Structure formats: structure tokens, C-alpha cells
Amino acid sequence: MEKRILVIEDEPNISEALRFILSRNGWQVDVSADGHAAIETMRKDPPDLLILDVMLPGLSGFDVLRSVREVECTRDLPVLMLTAKGQGADRAEAERLGVTRFMTKPFANAEVIAAVQDLAGT
Amino acid sequence: MSFNLLVLTCIAYVILLFAVASAAERSAAEGRAKWLRSPLIYTLSLSVYCTAWTFYGAVGYAARSGLEFMTIYLGPTLVFVGWWVILRKLVRIGRENRVTSIADMISARYGKSNLLGVIVTLLCISAGTPYIALQLQSIAQSFTVFATDSVGTGLAADRNFIAFWVAAGLALFTIAFGTRNLDVNEQHPGVVTAIAVEAVVKLLALIAVGVFAVWFVASGPADILARIDAQALPEWHIQPGRWTGLILLSAIAIICLPRMFQVTVVENTDDQHLATASWAFPLYLFLISLFVLPIAVVGLEVMPTGTNPDMFVLTLPLHLGQDGLALLSFLGGFSAATSMVIVASLALATMVSNHIVVPLWLKARAVQNLDTGDMRVLVLSVRRLSIVLVLCFGYIYYVISGGSAALAAIGLIAFVGVAQIMPALLGALFWRGASRTGAAIGLTIGSLLWFYTLFLPSFGPDVILSARVMEQGLFGLSWLRPYSLFGLTALDPLLHSLFWSLLLNALAFCVGSFVSFPSPIERVQGALFVDIFDRPGPARSWTHPAAEAEDLLPMAQRILGQSEGQSFFRVQAELQGKQGYLPDITPEFLEALELKLSGSVGAATAHAMLAQTVGTAVVSVEDLMAVASETAQIMEYSAQLEAKSEELSRTARKLRDANEMLQKLSVQKDAFLSQISHELRTPMTSIRAFSEILMDGEGMSDEEQHHFAQIIHDESIRLTRLLDDLLDLSVLEHGQVQLNIGPALLRDLIDKSITASNSVQAERKFRFTRSRDPETIEIVTDAGRLTQVFINILSNARKYCISDDPQMKISVRRRDGMIEVDFTDNGEGIPRDKQALIFEKFSRLTDSMQAGGAGLGLAICREIMHNLGGDITYVPGQGGACFRVSFPLELSPREASQKPLGKETEAVE
Amino acid sequence: MKPPRSSQFVARESYRIRRLMDAARFLPVFGLMLLLLPLMRGTSGPEAPPTAAESVYLFSVWIGLVLVAFLMSLVLRRTLDPPKSAQPPLPQKREALPEAED
After folding, report:
1. Which residues does B126 contact at the CB level (< 8 Å), separation at least 6?
2. Are B244 and C27 in contact (CB under 8 A)?
3. How many H helices and E strands in chain C?
4. Cβ partners under 8 Å of residue B146, min gap 6
5. pLDDT tens, C67-98?
6. Which domain holds residue A30?
């Protein structure tokens, strides 16, 4: 069965790129730009991996991560966070909240694929 | 003398007064008013006490009752030589509290109560109206006596006609110089100077006639004294009761008459002037009175029996063929009458507008929303209307009373009326325990008694009070007879009324004060007034204010006018060591604001308006304790301490501001770097991801390839634009920008900007309010850069103004070679805590992407305006967001190259 | 405990001025007394003084009061606060404004 990946990202071009490279490598990719809606879907039907942007409108990526870790069914969900700010403070905060892996943008496609493979398996 | 010549003389004289008044106004406006505010002018303006009643009536009075006429001038003499006791205190209190009228004084002292203001205003109007009628009558009468030709007798016989035109002319004059602007302090240099000129004219005229009577008709002082004794009638003997009573009455009147209060207290600028007037004004009265008896005696001898002695000043020279002298005397009488009417109607109109009309209007408006709108216009029109009304009343009274002899007694009747204010006024000055309740009861009882025992009967039997009431008393009760109340029959009507009304007034005032409990604000004001000389500064009456400066600014603007209000706030903020338009709401600031407002609308109204806006109880027990403990000994010491601690706190505030700014800058620098990183990396991410995809080159349709290339292209453009903006900002910040300076029509630039900004959220329809005329102005500047600023402001409004019916008001004004363009929308405005930040880089107010820019727009605008020798500021409290763009009318290259001072933010790269 | 004699009037000048202030308070009362004096000379009947003489008396009192007030004011005015030169001139540039506010 295909592993399912949820991408929460508000820049449409970036999420389109992620969807393309990941689905080409055999994952099933869902994209959401809105933190609230994504949390709802995850609770009903948790994916195998969450890819999360830090700068989101409304609910920030940290808020999403916090609520993911609060709920039983997603407590152990692997989360890959992407940030464009590139700052130490963001990484520390993310680790405190229980992120699985942290990457800065821009990323090499191969790096993302490797990380996803590592966290979700094929 | 011909009637026409007489009218021409009057008109020429009035034109002269106009010229004097406007010259005085002009030099006052230009700040060259030193000589206008000299003790001499002050003393002369006090002569408004000497009305036509003095000029003509005193001689008639002397002819009928001998020396008794002197009482009217001896009372004021005692008050002025005793200035140290009452007037000094009154004048000081009036000036420190910006009192605008006697009604305002009473109202301010008794807890800023408007009820008292209304009572005093009504009383003054009832007493003042007949007095004004008396002046109209004397002018009309003098015309009739003078004009003997055929044209004249026809016209002059119609006294109402003359009185009407005189009243109209005086209304015009008073409006022109009394309501030119709504000034702090309510002072009118033009009027005061014209009054001073008239004072000289009437004094000279009376002395000239007197000299003529003593040295040309009689043969010197000795001869005159002999003639006085020869003419003396039995009625000329001094009557003890009236002699004492009238001295007292006139002493009270000179303090309480509204017009005297106006010239003595309201128009006073300096205690020193009062020191001079303390002897100079009694001297003036002395000179005015000196020749009254001689003129009366000579008149009685020379003139045919049956001639009206009230007109001797005029008829004596006429009878003896001295036409020139008679004309001078006519102008003297004219001066006396007009100066009284002008000052009295001005004083009454101020009271009517401040204590009756404006409070009513405020009450009506309080229900609705107190939105912007200039209240000055309202107050000024009310005042103009009140002047017309007061003169109308006077004229109507004159017509109804038919210029009868009853008018002659009106002077003293009015005196008794205004004397009712005296107990409350003395209490205000000397008795801290005097209360509002006591003052209100006393004033009401005194006024009613005056009405019943003197004012109403003065119309004569059967006009208002029937003859039956006069003879048998109200309801047939003999102890209610107006002229012998409670069976008091021994006094003459005037003394009888004075006795009862003042006695019961004072009694009620005292008893009312004993039994009532004053409110805290009354007690603060009481201490403030009574102990005025023991305290260096005003007491604090505002504590724990709950208003924001932003709420107060619109209100202040409505009353003081927009620019005056804004500059007052800016100055106050500077005093606190702050920048911008919004000072901290300290008790000191509220004090200053209240004082400023009360100069325009009176103490009670100003206080009520502030209380309405600030909310909450105004005076706490601590305040009262503070006031009570402010004894003279510790005052000086604590004043020094206060000055020092104020200095300290000002420095501390400056330091705190600087520190806050530095901290903000540091945080901003981090945020800026992180922002830059984010804004650059985001497009970069898409570009890198898709170019790698394209490089892989497998499993893509042509369509997909094309789409991905398109994305890479778009994101590169986005990157470029961002870099352009950053570069632009950097160049502007370092003043290395090349300006393209040339002439342009401001209106065209605004037109262009509106068209260009229409593309932003094009579905929203904005309504524009513009005024074409001020926009039609040629400016020399970099039109392209200026347009860029306008477009940015307009586009922001389209993005952020959330009103359903969005509007944009663009107003243009010139000030000192600068143009100011205000862009005001009707949205929510910018929250106060954000106002200081909007011009910083990357400071989008919302974090959503709706703005669609990197948040550099206003930062660039500000840099552009600095480069154009101007500025862009946010003006708070205008209903919506309001941006003010200011720039020089003509930008010279030198100015353009100068970097503006006081720039706090440096570029961070 | 007697204070030394010499120190009793160290502030001679200010003591003078304070007494002069008292005098200024009494002046109107004395003035009133003098002006009421004619009432005590009999005001009717044959022994009443002639009007001319009475008027000379009253005018003399009057000018006397003026003179005394003048002399007192010379000293008293020095105790008044100096004129407030700090008071800023009132801005009077209203004429430029109204038409710009559409």
C-alpha cells in the first residue's frame, strides 16, 4: 500500500514542487495551505508523514506541531519541518516541540526524497 | 444745525472708531500690542461705567437732587482705592482661571455649576436690557434736541427710527470687533481701544462744557459757588438713608455689572494695570463729576423754565449760540452711550452663548455621536446672534416703554438687580464654606424680590403689575405690597427693594451654605479661589484619567480649530519630552487642556466636556487632602521640589523613549534579517526545486515542462522586484538618489495617482472628496517620486480600509511655503500601538499575504518624502487612517541634497 | 528669653510693606467714614451747611483719596508678581486656515 504524506505549505509553487517530486517517487501526496483544516483531517485519518512549513498564515507551523503532539493518534507521527528563515532559534523551538527532522529552504530535491524515505519508508 | 450734518458727523466719528479698532486688532495680531495693553488704556476702558446716564443724566440728577448724584461715583471710588481688598483678588482669579464673564466666575467657583451660570445670565439680561434701552433713548433724544431744521424735525421726531439705526450700527460694530475670533481669554483689543478713545472724548466734552459754564457764563469758581447756594432747593439737602445706600449700591454695582466685569477682570492682562487704575480711575470719575453741579446751576439760571435738565449739557451751549461746543458735547454723549452698549452687549452675548446655548447644544449632541466638526463656527455664530438679540431686546424695550420718564430711574434699578450677585461673589472670594446650594437659593430669592419690588413696578401701575396689586398687595394681602413689603413703609422704593432683596439673598446664601454639603469639586474650587495668593500653581483636580490622548484630540480640535488644537497637543507632548501629537494624559496635561478650552467656552462647559470624555469621578479624597495641606509655608519648598522632579521625570521619559527606540531597533534588525531571508528564500526554493525537476528531464509532458519553466520565470521576477525595492530604499536612505525636479500641477499628480491605484482590488468603489481649488497649484518637485508616494497611500487605503462604503478625503493646504496633503479614509484607522511602527521596513500590519507586498511601501514613501525636503506622518484621531504628506512648494536642489535631521532609523544591510 | 534688640527689625523694609498693605485695606473704610460725615452735620433745617460748602468738602475728600491711593500704589505695585513675560504670544494665524478645510 502507498504511504500517504500530508504537506502543509502556503506558497502554492513550493507545494506543487513537493507534490511533483514525491508522487513521482511513489508516495501519495495531500496538500493543504491551512493549519486548522489540516489538523482536522489528520485526526480523522492520520497520514504516514507530515511535511510542515513554519511561516503559515493564521496558525503557525509550531502551533500545528504542538497540536499534533497533543493528540493520541498522531503523537508518534513523523514530522519534517521546512523553514525559509534559516535561524537557530526556529530549530531549537521545533526540537523542543518534538519535530522529527528540520530542513531549511531552499532544499535539494534529492535531500527531501532521502529524508522522506528515511522517515516514512516506501 | 441741520439733521444731515449731524448724521454725517456721527458716521464720520464711527468710521474713526472703526479705524482705531481695526488698527488695534491688527497690531495685536502682529504681537506689537504692548501699548494697547498699557495701564492708561486699561483705566480709560473702565470709563465704560460712565454711560449716557452719567453724561446727560447726572446734570439732570444734580438739578433735581443736588449733591446726591455724587454717590454714584463715590462708591466706585471707594472700591478702586480699596483695590487691595477685593479687586486684586478678583482680577487674579479671573485671569488664572480664564474666566469669561461674571456668570462664568460664579459658575466656576461653585463646582463649575452651569445652573448658577444660567441664573446669573438671566439676571444680567433682565437688568441689562432696560439699561441698553436707556442709552438708545438718550441718543435719540439728543438728535431731537439738536436737529432744528425742517428735514431734521421730521425725521428726528421719529425717535424709534433713530434708535433703530443706532442699535443696528452698534450691533454691527460689536460683531465686527467682539466676535472676530474665539480667543483664549476672551479679550478684545479692538473694542477696548475704541472704548478708550470714546472715554477721552466724553471726558473732554463734559469738561469743555463745564469750563464754558464756569468761566464764560459765570465769572469763575467763587461766582459759581455763590450761584449754587442761591439756586439751592430744599430737596438738595442730603438725605442720610439714600446717601449711604446709594454709595453702597454703586460700590457693589461697579464690581457686579457685566460690562464692568468684562473690562475690569476679563480684559485685564496684568496686576500692575490695576495698581494704576486704583487711583487713575477715581481721578477720572472726579473730573467727570467736577463740573456737573456748575452746569446744572447755570442751566437752571439761564434756560427757560420747563426745559428738561437732563439735556442741559447739550441745550446750554446751543441756547447760548455755541454750536461747536454743542457738537462736541453731542459726540461726548454719543460716545458714552455707544461704548456702554458695545461692551454690555458683548458681555451679555458671551454669557448667553457660554451658559445657555452651548450647554444645550452639547446636551443634544451628547445623545448622538460626538464626531468631528468645528465647534468654533457654532460658538461664534451663537455669539453674533446673541449680540443681535440683546440689542433687539433693548430696542423693543425702548419702543414699548415709549421713551418715558420711567427710563430715567432704570440705571439705579439695574444696579439693584446686578447687586444680587454680590453675596455669592463675596462668598466666592473669601469664604471657603460657601456652597453651590446656598448661592443658587440666595441668587434666586434675591432676583425674585428685586423683580417684584422694583423691576416690575418700574413699568408703572397697570403695565405689568395692576394698580390694585401696587396699592393693596398681591392677593389683597397688604404685607405683600411691592413698595412696602412686610409692612416696611419708611424707606423709599429703591432702598426698600435693596434692603429686602440683599438681606434675604445674603441670609439664604449663608443658611444654604451652612446646611448643604458641597461636592468635592466645589471644595477644590473653593480652596483654589479663596487661597489664590497662597499657592504658586493651580490645584490638581484631575487624577487617574481614563482617556487616551487620541480621544481628546478630536474634541479639542472641534473647539480650538484643527491647527490650533493639533499644535497645542504637539507642544504639550514636547513639554513632556515626547514626539508626535499625543502627549501622556497626566493631570497636568488635563489641567492645561481644561484651561485652554475654558478660554473659549467657559469653565463649566469645558469641565463638562472633559469629564464626558475622560469619564470617571474627577476628584478624589486625596486631592482634597492635597489641596488642604498646601499651606503657605511648605509651598515654596515643594514647588522647587516639584520643578526638580518634573525636570527629572522629563529626562527620564526622554531616556526611556530613547532606550525603547534602541531596543526596538535591535529587535527590528533581527527581524529585518530574518524577513529578508524569508522573502529571498521563498522564491528561491521554488526556482531550485523546479530547475532540478527540469534537469532530471524524465517523465514530464511538454505541458508540464512549460508550466514549470513559467513558475521559475515568475519567481525570478518576484525576486528581482524585491531586490529592486531594497535597492531603492537603500539609495533613498543614503540620499544618493537622482531627483528629476521640474514644475507640475498638483491636481494632475493626484488625478494620476487615483487612476493608477484603481487597479488594486479594482472591484471596490471608493468615493473621493476633493477640493479642486486648493489643488490647482503649481509645484516644483520630482513629480514621479511624489506620485509614487500618493499611489502607495491610495493603494494601502484600498487594501486596508474595510468600510462598506469606502471613502477617501483628500485635502490640500498651504502653510509657510509648504504644501500639506491629507489623505483621510473612513476605515478603522491604525491602532495606537502600531502608529509608531508603520513607517518601518517589513511592518505589515496583518501577517496575512493579502497585502501582497514585502512591507516596504511606507518605508520607501518616508524616504522619498525626506529626499523631497518634506515628510509623511500619520495624524491620529481623524476618524479613519489619515496620512499627511508635506513638501515644499518649490524644491531647490540644495534642499533636496540635505538629509533631514532627526532621522532615527538607519538602514540595516 | 528676650531676643536681642537689634534683630527685631531685620526685615524692616518688608515689615513696612506689610503695614502698608494693612493701610490699603483700611483706606476704603476711612474714606467711607469721611464721606458719611456730612450726615452728622444736620441735613435739613436752617443750620444745615450750604450746598456749595458741602460740595467743596466732598470734592476735597475725593481728591485726597485719589492722592493717597496714588502714593500707596507706588509701593504696593512692587509687591505684585512681575508681568508674565513667559506667557507666549497667542498664535493669531487663523486667516490662512478655514478655506483649506473644505
Report:
1. B417, B447, B451, B455
2. no
3. 2, 0
4. B1, B6, B152, B156, B314, B318, B326, B330
5. 999 998 888 888 776 544 333 333 333 333 33
6. 4-120
| Gap from A73 CA to chain B (nearest CA, Å) | 31
Buried b (16+ CB within 10 A) or exposed e, B776-789: eeebebbbebbbbb
CB neighbours of residue B521 within 10 Å? 21
Per the domain annotation, does B78 fall within a domain?
Answer: yes
Going from N- to C-terminal start, the domains of chain C cover 10-80
In this structure, what CATH number is given to the domain that contains residue A40?
3.40.50.2300
Does C73 reach chain B within 8 Å, measured CB to CB?
yes
Domain end, chosen from B402, B436, B455, is at: B402
Q: Tell me: do B52 and B190 sit in the same domain.
A: yes
CA B521 to chain centre: 23
Which amino acid is located at C59 in the chain? F
Measured between beta carbons, the chain A residues lying within 8 angstroms of B677 are: 84-87
Distance CA B308, CA B315 (A): 9
Reported in sequence order, the residue ranges of chain A that DSSP labels E, i.e. its strands, are: 4-8, 28-32, 49-53, 79-83, 101-104
Chain B residues in contact with A24 by the CB 8 A cut-off are: 699
- pLDDT at position B634 is 45
Total structural domains in chain A? Answer: 1
Reply yes or no on whether the pLDDT at B551 is more than 80: no
Q: Is the overall model pTM greater than 0.90, yes or no?
A: no
What pLDDT is attached to residue B679? 80
* List of chain B residues whose C-beta atoms are within 8 Å of the C-beta of residue A17: 685-686, 689-690, 693
Asked if the structure places residue B271 within a domain, the reply is: yes
For C:12-31, CB contacts with B below 8 A are 21, 24-25, 27-29, 31
Q: How many CB atoms lie within 10 A of CB B645?
A: 12
Q: Are residues B594 and B697 in the same domain?
A: no
Return the pLDDT at B548.
63
The interface predicted TM-score (ipTM) is: 0.92
B765 and B725 within one domain: no
Number of domains in chain B: 5
Q: What distance in Å separates the CA atoms of residue B687 and residue B683, rounded to the nearest whole number?
A: 6
CB-based contact B174:B342 (threshold 8 Å): yes
Distance CA B819, CA B775 (A): 10
- pLDDT bucket at C5, cuts 50 / 70 / 90: very low
- Residue whose entry in the numeric block shows the C-alpha cell 539609495: B731
Q: What distance in Å separates the CA atoms of residue B725 and residue B855, rounded to the nearest whole number?
A: 10
CA distance B856 to B842: 5
Please tell me whether residues B602 and B745 are part of one structural domain. no
Tell which of B402, B437, B466 closes a domain. Answer: B402
Cell of B307: 426745559
Which residue in the set B82, B228, B811 is minimally distant from C101, CB to CB?
A: B811
| A21/B689 touch (CB, cutoff 8 Å), yes or no | yes
Q: Grid coordinates representing B836?
A: 509608531
Question: How close, in Å, is residue C8 to chain B by CA atoms?
Answer: 21
Query: Which secondary structure element, helix H or strand E, spans residue B822, and what is its range?
Result: strand B818-825
* Mean pLDDT of the B74-95 span: 90
Split at pLDDT 50, 70, 90, the class of B631 is very low
Helix (H) or strand (E) holding B169: helix B159-178
**Co-location of B831 and B876 in the same domain:** yes
- Same-domain check for residues B85 and B150: yes
CA B849/CA B556 separation, integer angstroms: 38
Q: Which three cell numbers stand for residue B780?
A: 516644483
B902 within some domain: no
Whether C101 and chain B come into contact, CB under 8 Å, resolves to yes
HSE of B115, CA atoms in CB hemisphere, 13 A: 11
> Do B754 and B829 share a domain, yes or no?
yes
In this structure, how many other beta carbons lie within 10 angstroms of the beta carbon of residue B41?
21
The verdict on B849 touching A (C-beta cutoff 8 Å) is: yes
Banded pLDDT at B602 (limits 50, 70, 90): low
- Residue-range definition of the domain harbouring residue B94: 3-402
